[in-house]
Amino acid sequence: MTALVLALALPVLPGCSATDRGPAETSSAAASPSKPGESAPSVSAVDVRAAEFQSKWWTWASAPEAVNPVTDTTGEHCAQGQPGDVWLVAGSFGGAVARRCVIPAGLPIAGPVVNLVSPDAAGCESFLERAGGEVSVLKGGTPKIVEVTPVRFEFTAQKGNPSGFRAGRNEGYGCGLWFTVDPLPAGRHQLVIKGHSGDFTVQATYNLTVKDASGL
Q1: Cα dist from 92 to 76, 112, 139, 174, whole Å
Q2: pLDDT number for residue 202
Q3: Does 72 map to a domain?
Q4: What are the Cα distances from residue 176, in Å, to 4, 29, 97?
């Protein structure tokens, strides 16, 4: 992807986009994303604006197609390559997907509402102007959405990734609308991500089972 619209969209990477600027931040309430210059929401110390986080997510999302979390249509690969300190989620390359995932308790959740990786910072401007989205969590959990302005970072893509990145080290500018959710209590939850940038739309529904140390 050269500047892929990620949803969870370098062309256009997988990213999630949404309905109007002013994404929802709770299970049902609407809220505006943080703007540049404002302090980012403090959710479990996950800073989606940091180059380190962008690198972590893009490396995870650049797995081979057979186990790629963006092309996954069922959730069978949701645990593949997870970093261990945060549970990453993705959207799709366009359209709606539904996934079932089992995740360990105690981990914050983070991912894109709609996002992009561009070869230069200018490529992010029009993308952000047309981006919007909302995120909801059924049964506990308050998503917080942050607008990420261009941040330069490096990431590692694996051979056979569906975005067309060359295998090995890549670099670019990441941007978009991203969200975080504090660790969810043990039990079943539904996370719904809806996003758009221009004509590109994404909807990802995650049916999550959060298990504590006892497996419950």
Answers
A1: 15, 10, 24, 17
A2: 94
A3: yes
A4: 11, 21, 20
Q: What is the pTM of this model?
A: 0.82
Domain count across the chain: 1
Per-residue pLDDT at 198 exceeds 80: yes
Q: Quickly list H helices, the chain.
A: 51-61, 122-129
Nearest to residue 9, comparing CAs of 200, 206, 173?
200
- Decide if 88 is inside a domain: yes
Structure tokens at 47: 């800073």
Q: What is the mean pLDDT of residues 5-22?
A: 38
CA dist., res. 201 & res. 198, Å (int): 8
Q: Give dist(CA 142, CA 140) in Å, integer.
A: 7
Q: Which amino acid, residue 25?
A: E
Residue 80: which domain range?
5-211
Query: CB atoms < 10 A from the CB of 23, how many?
Result: 30
